[in-house]
Amino acid sequence: MEHALSPATLAELRRPRPYPAVSVLTPTHRRAPLNTQDRVRLRNAVAQAKRRLEADPAVTRDRRADVVRELDRALAEIDLAHAEDGLAIFAAPGEHQVWSLARTVPERVVLSDTFLTRNLVSAQASEQPFWVLSVSADRVTLWSGGTDRVAEQHSGGFPLTRGRENFDAERRERIGDQPSTFRDEGTRQFLREADIAMTAVLRDDPRPVYLTGEQAALSLLEEAGSVAKCAVHVPHGGLAHSGPEAVWQAVRPAHQAELDKGTVTVARELEAARGHRTFAAGVDEVWQSAQEGRVRLLAVEENFRTIVRDIGGHLEPAGADDLDARQDIVDEIVEQCLETGAEVRFVPDGTLLDSAGIAGVLRY
To answer: What sign results for the dihedral spanned by CA atoms 267, 271, 277, 282?
Structure first.
C-alpha cells in the first residue's frame, strides 16, 4: 500500500484516464474492536463498484472485465493488519493503486475519467510530512516522516554509501596520518554529494528537514552546503545504519517541539488577521474564501469533520443520509487552498474553539 504522496505522484494520479477510472474510498481503523468490520466494509465497497460498472452503459464488456480484474488485484494486496484511518483504491484499465491514509474518509465509489484525489491531498497535509537525513562518514540515509513514523526513502540517489577503505583508521596509521574522520577531505566530498542530492529532493518535494548524526558530521555538512543551514539538527549518531523505529524515537521530541512552535505561530497569525480584517472562520465563510482563492493560511483542527449541503452558494449543516450531503467538505477546502498556493496547517483539537474548527488568514 502507498503512503507518500509527492507532487509528481499527485500529478500522475490526476492525469485523465480512459473511462472508467474507479475510486473506492472507505474508512478503516487501527485497533480492535472498531477494526472488526473493516474487511466486510471494504468488500462491500468493492462490490458496489462492480455493480456500478455493470450498470453503466458507457462501459464496454471488455473494459468492465479489465477494471474488475484490477479491483480484485487491489483487494488482494490490502493487509488490514497495517490499516490506518482510511483506504483509497484506484482502478482503471490496466492499472490499480491502493493508498493507506492517516485520515478518515467517507465511504464512496466514484466512476469518472480521473481518480478522486482530494482525500489523499488532505491526508498528506494533515500528516505534515518531513524529511530526516541521517548522516555518517560512510552512509547517508533519507527517511520520509509523517504523523507517527518514518520510512526509508529509496530515491534521489539515497542511500548514499562510501567504501570504508576511504577512511580506514589502520590505513591512516600506516601512512602516519590520523586526522579526524570528519576533517578528512574524502568525507567532506562525500557530504557535499549528500547535500547536492538532498537539495534536488527538496526542489521536487519541499518539506521541513531534520538532520541526525554526530555533532562533527552536522557541522561539516553545514560547511559543505546549504541543506543543514535550514534543517533542525538532532545530534544523534548511528542512525544512518539504524532502522525506522530508532530514527523516529530520536527525532520525535524535536518534531513535536517544531509542531508546538508552529501552532503558536498560527494562533498569532490568526489573531493578527482579526485586527486587519483578513480573517475568516467557520466552514461556510472559509469555503467561500477558498473558492475565490483568497486564503493565504488555512488552519484546521486535526479531527474536525462536518457534513454540509450547498444552499444557493452557502453551506449549511446536513445529515449523512441527505442525498445532496457533502461529507468531505473539509478535504475539499484543503485541496482548494493548496491549489491556490495557501499554506495549510493542522492544529490540535480545541485550538480553534472560537472559529468552529476551521479558520483562515486572507490575502485581501
So the answer is: positive
In angstroms, the Cα distances linking 58 to 19, 54, 55, 64, 135 are 8, 10, 9, 10, 55
Side chain identity, residue 2: E
Instruction: Cite the beta strand spans of the chain per DSSP E.
Output: 21-27, 86-92, 95-101, 108-112, 130-135, 139-145, 150-152, 160-161, 209-213, 232-235, 279-281, 295-301, 308-311, 314-317, 343-347, 358-362
Using CA atoms, how far apart are residues 284 and 312, in angstroms rounded to an integer?
Answer: 12
CB 145 within 8 A of CB 210: yes
Would you say the C-alpha torsion 292, 86, 113, 125 has a positive or negative sign?
Answer: positive
Q: List CB contacts of 42: < 8 A, sequence separation 6 or more.
A: 26, 28, 75, 78, 80, 87
* C-alpha atoms less than 13 angstroms from C-alpha of 166 in its C-beta half-sphere: 15
What is the Cα–Cα distance from 48 to 66, expressed in whole angstroms?
A: 16
Enter the C-alpha cell of residue 337: 487552498
Residue type at position 263: T
User: Along the 364 residues of the chain, how does pLDDT read in single tens digits?
Assistant: 766 788 888 889 999 999 999 999 999 998 888 888 999 999 999 999 999 999 999 999 999 999 999 999 999 999 998 889 999 999 999 999 999 998 889 899 999 999 999 999 998 888 889 999 999 999 999 999 988 889 999 999 999 998 765 555 444 444 444 455 677 788 999 999 999 999 999 999 999 999 999 999 999 999 988 999 999 999 999 999 999 999 999 999 999 999 999 999 999 999 999 999 999 999 999 999 999 999 999 999 999 999 999 998 999 999 988 888 898 899 999 999 999 999 999 999 999 999 999 999 999 9
Q: Is the CB of residue 202 less than 8 Å from the CB of residue 227?
A: yes
313 phi/psi in degrees, rounded to 5: 85, 5
**DSSP conformation class of 303:** T
